[in-house]
UniProtKB/TrEMBL annotation:
Chain segments annotated as transmembrane: 37-60, 81-98, 104-122, 211-233
Taxon lineage: Bacteria, Pseudomonadati, Pseudomonadota, Betaproteobacteria, Burkholderiales
Entries under InterPro entries matching the protein: AA_ABC_transptr_permease_3TM, ArtM/GltK/GlnP/TcyL/YhdX-like, MetI-like, MetI-like_sf
Residue span(s) of domain ABC transmembrane type-1: 38-230
Membrane topology per record: Multi-pass membrane protein
Protein name (database record): Glutamate/aspartate transport system permease protein
Length: 251
């Protein structure tokens, strides 16, 4: 078996090898196509991650509020709903069902719907991590904030959340890496990301090994890059000598 990496230098229409591997004058090579698909994958992943971080932080915080049982139940319902439905099913619901129920959504691009589905799915997981981080803090931190005259919002803003986010950086790193891998389900609704490129390019070129190895390398580079970024953040945010004591900061 011989490998032919020149497949990425071929024009996608006439299959002629293009010098330099990048198309010119409107021509597109398989390398151009793969880099474009990689860009779509990164775009979907980063936007979904941003949405998931915002929603997950809010929902996770609401689940630890004292004396607000209705709010806590709503937060729990959010987590249970989006965490227990498979991601692929949620993609199809957003793409096929939601536009039918809400006509205003019919003109929304599939790219946006995938970002919403992936972001909501991941937000449930991040919400659980934020809740766990807050509840892992010593109970006295909450009381100390309130004793200083802080409101509940200020206690979370200045006392609980800064420490809780430091605790959950390791599991949050796993989620940021997972969101890049989970973005591969976008192919199911025809978003031109890496997995769709791999499937179509393999059929057109019959060079599945080369195509899938290259796509795998793109996923590895993406995941490794986000891993290093999160490791840098963890190192800069670390509190020297901090030992997380078992407590119940949220209750």
């Amino acid at each position: 078996m011989s490998w032919d990496w020149q497949v990425f230098c071929q024009d996608t229409l006439d299959k002629e090898v293009v010098q330099g591997c990048f198309g010119k004058g409107g021509d597109i090579t398989y390398l151009d196509w793969m880099l474009s698909a990689w860009g779509w994958t990164v775009s979907v992943s980063l936007l979904a991650l941003l949405l998931a971080l915002v929603l997950g932080s809010v929902i996770g915080t609401l689940r630890t509020l004292q004396g607000r049982p209705v709010v806590v139940r709503l937060g729990n319902a959010w987590v249970e709903l989006f965490r227990n439905i498979p991601l692929l099913v949620q993609i199809f619901l957003w793409y096929h069902v939601v536009p039918t129920l809400f006509p205003v959504m019919q003109g929304v691009p599939g790219f946006v719907l995938v970002v919403l589905a992936l972001g909501f799915f991941t937000s449930a997981r991040i919400a659980e991590q934020v809740r766990s981080g807050i509840q892992a803090l010593p109970r006295g931190q909450r009381y100390a904030g309130l004793a200083m005259g802080f409101t509940t919002f200020q206690t979370y803003r200045y006392v609980l959340l800064p420490m809780a986010f430091r605790i959950i950086i390791p599991p949050l790193t796993s989620e940021t890496m997972n969101i890049f891998k989970n973005s591969s389900v976008a192919f199911a609704v025809s978003v031109a990301e890496l997995t769709m490129f791999a499937m179509q390019a393999q059929e057109e070129t019959s060079r599945g090994i080369e195509v899938y190895l290259a796509v795998t390398a793109c996923y590895i580079v993406s995941a490794f890059a986000i891993n290093r970024i999160m490791a840098f953040i963890e190192k800069r945010a670390r509190v020297p000598g901090m030992v997380v004591a078992g407590g119940s900061g949220g209750h």
